[in-house]
Amino acid sequence: MIRLLAVLLLFSTISFAQSKRIQPGKVYEAGDGLFAPRLGFRASVPTGWTGVLPRESEVFLLTSYTSPAEIFVLGREGGTLEQLKKSWEAGIELDDQIKLKATGANLTNGLLTAEVVATGDFINKSFRGFAVARCSDSGPCVTCLAVMPAQQYEEIKKATEAFMAAASFEAPSLASPYADFVWKDFLNNKMVTTYAFLENGSKESTIHLCADGHFSAKVTKKGILKNQNPQYKGKMSGTWTVEGVGEKARLRLTFDKGLPGLDTELTIKEEKIFAGGERYFVGNSDQCK
Questions:
Q1: CA distance 280 to 271
Q2: Cα–Cα distances in Å, from 254 out to 43, 77, 240, 245, 266?
Q3: Residue 72, CB half-sphere, CA atoms under 13 Å: how many?
C-alpha cells in the first residue's frame, strides 16, 4: 500500500487546505462536510465511510467501515480533464519493477474515470484500483483513487463515482487557512508550555488559561514571561484575556500581587503557536475546572 501512494504524483499535484476547511488529524464521520477552499471543493463523507487528513499530509483518506477499501482524495489547482487523461494513460514507473497506469479511461458528463492497473513482480493481485476526477470551471481538479479487494471492485467503484458526483465546486479562495481562527475558543481551558533543553536537563514554563478568565502559571525558564520582566518567576496567578480572530492575536495577563501586566502577540502558522516569537505547545489543562 505504501508503494501505491506514489501513484498520487501521477494523478495530480496535491493542495488540500485546512481550517474550518479540512483539518489535519480530525476524524470525519459519515455525513460530515468537507471543504478545501483553495480548490473550491465541497463534499460529504459517504455513509459507511470515515475520513481523515493525516498530519503532514495533503491527501485526504476515506476508509470503509466494512472492508479494506480506501479512497484517496487529492487535488491540484489547475488543469483539464483532457490533460489528466493523457497523464493517466501514459502511466508512471514507480521503480524498476513496478509500473502503474490507467486503462480504459473514459470522459463522460464531466467525470474522468478509469481502472488503475499495476504491473510488476511485487503486485498484490487480489486488489484493484479505480480513479475518478472532476475539474472546476475555475481551474482546480480533484481526483479520487480507490483501492479495494478485487471482488468489491464494482461496489467501491460506484461509491467513488457517487461521492464525486455529489460534490460541488465554487470559486477558489486563497485566504489564509486561519482567517476565521477564534483564539478565545481555542485557548479556553488550555495549557500552553514552552521548553528549554539545558546541560543539566530540560526546564519548562506553563500557563493554564481557564475559561472563567483566570490563569495560573509556573515559570522556570526564560520565555514570554521571564523575558518581559525578571519578577515573572515561580508560581503566579491572575486573569487573562485574548483579542483577535485570524493568524494573530493579543494575549493580556493581569497578575495578582501587584505585578505589572503582560501584553504579548500570539501567532499561528502551520499549526504551530508562537508567543512573543517563541514556540509554545498547547494541550488540554488538567487544572481548569
A1: 11
A2: 45, 46, 6, 21, 16
A3: 25
Phi-psi region at 200: left, alpha or beta (left = phi > 0; alpha = psi -120 to 50): alpha
| Cα 106–Cα 112–Cα 114 angle in degrees, nearest 5 | 60
What is the DSSP secondary-structure string of 42-109?
A: EEEPPTTEEEEB-TT---EEEEESSSS-EEEEEEESS--HHHHHHHHHH-EESSSSEEEEEEEEEEET
Closest of 98, 85, 183, 91 to residue 135, by C-alpha: 85
Radius of gyration of the chain (CA): 24
- Specify whether the CB–CB gap between 194 and 221 falls below 8 A: yes
**CA–CA separation, 225 vs 192, rounded Å?**
12
pLDDT by residue for the chain (289 residues), tens digit each? Answer: 333 333 333 333 333 333 356 666 678 899 988 888 888 888 999 999 998 876 555 678 899 998 899 999 988 877 889 988 888 888 877 666 777 788 888 998 889 999 988 777 777 778 899 999 999 888 889 999 999 999 999 999 999 999 999 999 888 877 666 777 889 988 999 988 876 543 444 457 788 999 999 999 887 755 444 455 566 677 888 999 999 888 899 999 898 877 788 888 998 886 788 887 788 888 888 888 7
Q: Cell triple for residue 40? A: 473550491
How distant, in Å, are the alpha carbons of 44, 46, 170, 206, 267 from that of 280?
Answer: 34, 37, 36, 9, 10
d(CA 80, CA 78): 7
Pick from 146, 80, 91, 140: which is nearest to 119 by CA?
Answer: 91
